[in-house]
Records
---
Amino acid sequence: MKKKSLKKVTSAVLVAAMSMGLLAGCGGSKSSEEAKTDADGATVIKFGIHVANPKKQETVTYNIVQGFNKENKGKYKVEFVAADTEAHSKNMKLAAQDGSLPEIVHLDSAEAPEYNEAGYLLDMSDFLKENKDIDDALDGMEDAFNDGKVQYGLPYQSNVQGFFYNKDLFDKAGIAYPTDDTTYDEFLDMIAKLKNSGVTPIAIGSKNSGYSMWEFNEFFSRYGWEDNEKSYTGDKAKYSNDDMNACFEKIKGLADAGAFPENMATIEYFDAKQLFNEGKAAMFGTGQWDCAEFDKNVGEHIGFWWGPKFGDSSYEQNIAMKVPAAPLVVSSAVKDNDKAKEALYAFLKYYYGEEAAKISYEGSIFPATNYDGIAATDSQYAMNAMITALGNGWETPKAAPDQTVTPAVQEAMYDAIFGVMQGTYSPKDALKNMDSAAAN
Amino acid sequence: MKIYHGGPGYKEDERMHWLSKKRYKIGLVIPTLVVYMVFIIIPIGMSIGYSFTKYSGIGKATFNGLTNYMRLFKDRLFWISLKNTMIMFILAFVLLLSLSFLIALLLNNKLKGVDFSKSLIFSPAIIAPIIVGIIWVYILDPNIGIINNVLDAIGASGLKQKWIGGNTLSPYSIAIIYFWQQLGYLVTVFIAGLKMIPGEVLEAVEIDGASFIQKTMYVTIPMMKSTISTVAVLIITGVFKIFEIVQQTTGGGPNHLSETLVTYSYSMTFNSGDYGYGMSLATFTFLLSLVITGIYSILTRERGE
């Protein structure tokens, strides 16, 4: 009898232990308040980044991190936690729930406020107070990530967005290059001529890359997005109005003119960029992160343009889409970890310092900071084209329109733009979908 | 009556008797049950729980009752993804069940080149679905795909279609891709079933003068009922899990028009950050596959069983 009871107890204990083991395995671990160190005794901080291969895909950031690690060997070390954009977003949400958020994370602007509200992020006001030079160098660009109480992030870089164009293809088609004053009607005329010359006027791909709509942020701004910010952000946002309808009608007009590739639904952003690199497309909407690639593939034939001006809009047309890139945020867990905080602040000082700004310019990326005497070289054709465009001194928005909305509205916005381009939605239906996303 | 009582197999029989005791059966099942609970039942329960909340994946979920389910039935894209799933289900079910059985019948004969044909037909089943998607993009893409380029080359440009990426044909194309991918695997299951039919039964039927069709209709199919049921359930559950092919060929686009229930649930959950609504879609999909499998089981249940 005793033997049987013992067996029962043993079985029960084993089963319970196994169950607990499994549950523990699923539960993950809480971040330790002890700072992690490497074999050299350097304090290690993790950097969650939105690309799978930082060395290739975010070369400048990779070089900045390498520069920091080299300068601080044996003292501090930054290690990447890398995954492609979609996986990164999922991973960071899970890590936040789990308490294992990397010390520093690149977050989408639309998601960052929610992380802040949930208390996952460190207020970086102290860092800026302690580093007045960096605060000055950021020149207000950090305001996009301040909710009035908490400085929950700092801009990763400066994003400059618009149309890149291939001058060679324009020359072959006998068309003048677009200028600051080119109107929408002139743009349509340009598209017709480019199409007749046998090239795709504007390369774009929507498969798994709805986010690749940077050139249309300028459209939204020129139809008064910033002036009507309150109508376009928050829970009661409403997009069905005459301004946005006119804006979407212009996108439809481009589609009707045959501006986009026929297979835009089955190609991705990278495929579309390839069309431009290979000289099969005359224009490509993107930002400065592609400059280095264009230098290599298009070289001195590259040009940059903000986009057309709209005669039917009463809003400011002299807008340069130079905006803060999605923020770098810091895990609130760092607050209780002096060593990690020390390493992190050292890294941020380096990241927003003059040396990193030089590395940025070398890689054709505009840093979030402004320091005198740093410039692109003559062979950085794409970046110089952007610098020329920025030379007009136009006003810049506080943030890109697509970065001011919630993730659900952002997704609906991307869907709306590509839906209108592909003839799936009328402009009115597209805007209704955005309204619904905001209401949900 | 104990066959081995007192004989050399007695000890083995006793051991079997030991295993047949209820408490030991339970003991043996518990580890599997625990794993099943932790990795299947609890996540399903949690998903169902989240389907009654508003949750962005960040911070805390807030209970919102049936709101997500009410929204589901008003959502045009939900109906599109349901329609696409059902198109794929009907096409895949009809084509896969019938053709895989017929091909199995053919390959079960001693014909020249049967082994090579079996390998050829089975080969797509060992390719990862994501690679299957990539292969088919190069076949179906309206611009770079082989089909439209061949049509151009033979002067039949008028027949060119947007096989994927258009507003209509994507779900049909995806069903064909799924058919291509699954055919070999299901043929193999059927061949295994055919091998289980006693040879003497078939010989007797042949001696009685039954034609091939009569033999198939009155002997093979009735004796293959359990295999057919297994294959049917595999198809039903498989169709409700089609994900990678859609992601790779169209990404659910254009504008969600080629979404299935699973990809739309994924899109809502991870792209729109609407975890609560995404989970209500997942719960609906789970229930729908349960219902269809249940209906099929009831319809095919033998009387008196």
Note: Residues 9-32 of chain A have pLDDT under 50 and may be disordered.
---
Amino acid sequence: MKTIGVIGILASALPAVAGAQGRPTLAFRGDAGFVWVRSDTAAAAAGGAVRLRGPVLGGEGRVVFNGFAVGVGLLSGTLQAADQTVKRDLIEGRLVVAAQPVPWLEMSVGPFVRAYVTDSVTERWVFWQARARVEAPIVTASLTSYVELWRALSSQVNLVAGAGRVQGGEAGVVYRPPQRPFWLRLAYRVDDAAVRVGGSQTLEEISVSVVVGAR
Amino acid sequence: MTRAFIVLTMSLLLGGAQVLRAQSARELLGQGVRAYQALEYDAAAALLEESLGRDSSGLADSLRARALTYLGATELFRGQRDSAVATFRHLVLLNPRYRPDELIFPPQVTNLFQEVRRATRAIAVAVPPVTELRTRLERFTARVLTSSLADVTVMLVREDGTPVRQLYSGPVADSLLVSWDGLTAAGTAATDGRYLLQVTPRTPTADGPRARQVLLEVKQEPPDTLAWPPEPPFLPERTSSGPAFRSLAAGLVTGAAAVALPSIMAQGKDATGARFAVAAAVGIAGFVGFFAHKPRPLEANVRKNASQRDAWMKKLDGVKTENATRLRTMRLVVRAGPETFAERRSE
């Protein structure tokens, strides 16, 4: 499944790569956000669903070569329950290979790692994502909205229950100030990772980002 | 085959008979003239009377005039002065302008003819067989001939007698050229139909000239008008409303997607209200895009279109004016029939 997804993404990138001219460009994105996690897996919630929240910081760097891009992203923050009895560190990392066969569509694939770290144990999710992102201009060249959906091609978790379906989506708006080298982005995303024996972890994030360089 | 042969034979016989009749009237005239020149007046009178007695289509007017002249002269030399006078009167009525050749006929003949001509008041009308004219610009002409000074009215009437237009009223000493521009008294072009060109004495008397008329068949031929100039391709004067609605749709759909994402991707979970903040921001962005792309006038195009429109309207007005002029000058075809005596209305 994972192999098929990678092949599909690479195949869609081929026309862009074949016609590629010019030099690669770099793009960096810095994120500041707030995350809510709700976990009702049997292992995590003996006494009911666990709800955590907290601010996060992240970033992503990309090398863009015409319609083809390779990127690495990282996000980190500390989450805690409202009564501050539970506290975890959230760390996410991902590698992405993206292609843009047409200007309004980007397809990407890559491994994704998410870890909830406590003093005693680390819950680690690893999955391969296939993502599709559709953009629609609101004000030509300066204001764009987008919706991105993704689904895991394969998933693993170091819980006894084992990983099930993992999927998510993101919606947001990008503002490119005229004659400025940076962009601003406001986004909302939701990820839902199910475990086999029942229950799931749902992560929501609202973030504001600054992007410098090519997309 | 047999029927065709019969039809052909009949046609040849009928046509041949007509040619024979014409030739024989002409031959009789020739024989009569030769008899007159040989001083055989009785024979000449008989031959000439016979030539004139044939069908009216037998002799042309010029030959009839010649026959009548010789007959009048013959009767005079036979001592039949009254007959000579009657013959010459007939000749004057046929053609008021006719004069016997003084090199051929002796003075007693020409003098008697002049005497009869002065005493006989006759009118004739000569028109071309076919006239094509453009109303107002060109004219149909008719020549009115009188044997002596006569006061006449030249009137164009419909076949049923309805007056159309008076063309002349006044004296005619010898001849008068009357013209008609194709218009009725109301100033409009004469419509299709049959008309009579009547020349009538203004004061009809028993011994006065008889009114004459010519049947005119008038047919209108509408003039060609110019086609209107095609409308030039105008530039759009306002921006399209499409981008505005596309922007609004993009914002609203993305906002709706943000609201619906938890329901689609994490069914059955209580989502936070964070998504509404993003949905509102995207929705507002959509409205911003809508108003940014709202249709607005394109001044440069408006100015360019205005000058194009003015030029086009000038051309259009020019064509309309030209067409109106052409339509005012209708083309008429006037075909003249035979000249006949008009019925006297006051008798």
Note: Chain B touches chain A at residues 243, 246-247, 249-251, 253-255, 257-258, 261-262, 264-266, 269-272, 274-275, 277-279, 281-282, 285-286, 288-289, 292-293 (CB under 8 Å).
